[in-house]
Amino acid sequence: MSEAPPRPPAPERRAVSAAELRRHWLPAVDRLPAVPAAHRRPDVGVRGAARILGIDEATVRLLVAAGLPATEAGGLGAWPRDGGDAGACADDCVWRAGTGSGTDDRTRHGSSGGDVETRTHHDPPDHHGANAGALDRHTPYAASPDGPLMDRYDLINLGLLAGTGRSGPEAAEWRWAGQAGGEPGGWIAPRALRLALSTDCSVRCAGPAPAAPPVTSIASGTTTVRRWRTLEPGGRVLVDVTLRGRSRRVRSRDAREVFDELHAGLAGGRYRYARLPAALAADPEQALAAGVVDAVTAALVMAAQARAAGLEARIRSGFLLGPGDTSRRSAALRHTWAEIREAGHWLPLDPVQAYRAARHPAAHPDFTDFCRGSRPNWLLPWAYGTHAAPAPHLCPDGGRAVTSCRQLPPQHGDF
Predict the structure, then answer these.
(1) What percent of the chain shows pLDDT beyond 70?
(2) Which residues lie closer than 8 Å to 257 by C-beta, 6 or more apart?
(3) Rounded distance, CA 40 to CA 74, Å?
(4) Using an 8 Å Cβ cutoff, are 275 and 152 in contact?
(5) What percentage of the chain's residues is helix, strand, coil (to nearest 5)?
């Protein structure tokens, strides 16, 4: 497979020119999907927004004046609680995905009572809303004194829409989507990867840390686990895997129609792709009414339609990985898709991955058809329908154990 195109430059908080503001950022504000008020959670201040978007704080304030949804800082509890994504930054918050930081160190961010210490990457939620009612008490930008507060998902979607290469979310998209270029044979060739899996409480409670995920968490079939090492204390695993793609095509006309309807809705603009809060993503009726779709919403819709057509269907989850030759640690993006059972095999239906990859300039024209039954070698399949960890976790705040994945450089020496 040919090498993926260079990733966009790492986001920097630098001044935005007037031309860039007019050409990219203001139109992105106009196109920003409208998230229902009940799912909005403005908890990111101007400083945090500038980090996520890779722009200067003055530009953030201009975007707010131009219509970027924001509310005046009012302290914790001053916004409607979504209930499904406590502590989330949708896999690709600025520091990990945007800067390509090669560390797992802790860093300090400003807050009203002095600095607040928090990880450079916050693990994302169970996208199926398993943590309903939970409130993250460790959100680094909550009650920020630096101006209005914005919703994290608005900022993620704004960065994707602007298309400047500045934002962490866009850089994360480019890392995996560029692999959809090159020859199709490269999409299924074996890849040797080194990964770090970690399990954390979704609300980062003060209780005992969740147990590390077991080796059975990684689905077999296209993945071979070569080495597995659990680190002490529990909750983190280093693993060497060989990941292979699998090329198959669904034959069922009903299954293809299920895929094509959702994909056409995204490509034609009837639905708008967006990163959604967990509770909204898990409510397809409400999400579709708002005209927005993410991977979880699409999987739920397609599974329901396939079953209505008499097909056996299920929901599966996994992690989208970047190129295997990366020299830095990077967060894998959580992903969810539907599968239908045909001729004894479970075949993926993944129009969201097809649509997202098609936005990359190097995307191969055959990749959309590939997503009708095939699995690429950058998708690590999880053995469960959600990203929730199988180990029990007794959280006093109602959280659940959730697993995240990071891709390590091949020369990483922890083994």
Answers:
(1) 74
(2) none
(3) 15
(4) no
(5) 30, 25, 50
